[in-house]
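Data deposition worksheet. Section B asks for the primary sequence of the deposited chain exactly as it was used as input, without tags or linkers unless they were present during the calculation. Section C holds the resulting structure in token form. Section D is free text for depositor observations; keep each observation to a single sentence. Incomplete worksheets are returned to the depositor.
Section A, Depositor: J.P.
Section B:
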Amino acid sequence: MDKNKSELARDIENYVKEFGNDRSALLPILQAIQKKYSYISSFAQQEVARLLDIHPVEVFGVISFYSFLSSEPKGKYIIRLCKTIICDISGKDEVEKAIIKETNTKFGETSQDNKFTLEYTNCLGMCDMGPAMMVNDKVYTKLTPEKVSEIISNLNN
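Section C:
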């Protein structure tokens, strides 16, 4: 086992100790892996299944169900733009163009330098403050193209 896999295996063992070894611990364990590694690899899925004594298909099912979990590598910054009708009315299209321009990336893709992943999300629960986006775990509201430029500029520093 290479160094990266052995570190990941140790981390997963620690998460199991922290959260428990039954099915109710599955989501917190997957969230911890996602937070540290930006995605949940096939190896990680197998390890979690083994340690929780569940089938790997169950692990993958949870990952594929929750949009904030991923089995594919993502960028350092995951930018999720709300695509509700309220955000549309509030100026989402101009914000979207600014995000694309500032990151040089299209939605549904990860930048070549693996810095940004752009995704749409159905709702961030900020309908009264749209347009809204989330960068990793931080929510930004009442966005304008200028605000987007400033936010992304700060991420680049």
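Section D:
The beta strands are 77-82, 116-121, 133-135, 138-140.
The domain at 77-156 is CATH 3.40.30.10 (Glutaredoxin).
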